[in-house]
Amino acid sequence: MTLWNRKLLLFVGLAWMLAGCSTVSSLWSSENGGAGDSSDSNYQAGMSALEDKKYNDAIRYFRRVEPNSPDYANSLKMIESIPFQRAQDAYKEKNYKLAMQELDKVPDNNPNYPRAQKLRAKAAYPLAINDYRSASGNVQKLSALKKVASAAEKSGDTAALRETVSLIGTHLKQARRVRDVRSLVSMLESTLESQTNPEVLNSGLDQAFRAIKQFNSQPQLRKQLLSLIAMLKLKLQT
């Protein structure tokens, strides 16, 4: 082989190696979002996706931010905030079950945790109402109503509380057993004892007055209802 041929082969080999490196570099760049793909651009892309509610895309971009980037800590915070944002969207769409599932993912050390707990209470009420409506038989209905009352009390929502008070009043009107009446009056009391809204308290007072007319001849029930009425009147005066 002549010297010229050797030089030619060396040149071709070098050119092939350089072309291969370029291809590998191109593939790597493509895999990670482009040659100009930096932690900063990933963070900005994540924020843009988050604003558009493209949560999976946002997570993907935030995860690309390098640990040595000044945006790394914020990227982790943004990822942690996504379940709460998804829960808010689900609640607005009345998908309460999905909202509860997303709220389960919010850690208690997250800044959104207090708001997540409030949203959980609001989402729990319509779920409890659905269970109540699908329940059959007196025992199941009363058990479901108890969960409704608990959810309404925790939510603090005026409409939910008034609806619950009305449901309890309906059951009181239909009740025949002393045990059921006592249980319903206790349920009404526990629903209202932490409330301050006059509209809700007056609604409860109306139900208590109706009940005492119905059960006035039964001393034990009358005593329990008078205690409830006294509590509600005192709360309305303060």
Topology summary:
Elements (H helix, E strand, L loop, with lengths): L2 H29 L7 H13 L3 H10 L7 H21 L3 H8 L9 H22 L3 H18 L2 H17 L3 H15 L5 H17 L4 H19 L1
Helix pairs in contact: 2-3, 2-4, 3-4, 4-5, 4-6, 5-6, 6-7, 7-8, 7-9, 8-9, 8-10, 9-11, 10-11
Which key phrases capture this entry?
238 residues, mainly alpha, 11 helices
Q: How does this structure look, described?
A:
- The protein is mainly alpha-helical and 238 residues long.
- It has a domain at 158-237.
- The chain has 11 helices and no strands.
- Helix 2 packs antiparallel against helix 3 (55-64) and helix 5 (96-103) packs antiparallel against helix 6.
- The termini are far apart.
Bin the strand percentage. under 5%
Q: Any idea what the shape is?
A: elongated
Number of helices: 11
Query: Could you tell me the radius of gyration in angstroms?
Result: 32 Å
Tell me the major beta sheet.
Answer: none
Please identify the structural class as seen in this structure. mainly alpha
Task: Tell me roughly what share of residues is in helical segments.
Answer: over 70%
Mean pLDDT across all amino acids: 87
Q: Can you write the helix and strand succession as a string?
A: HHHHHHHHHHH
End-to-end CA span: 109 Å
Short description:
With 238 residues, the protein is an all-alpha fold. The protein is 79% helix and 0% strand.
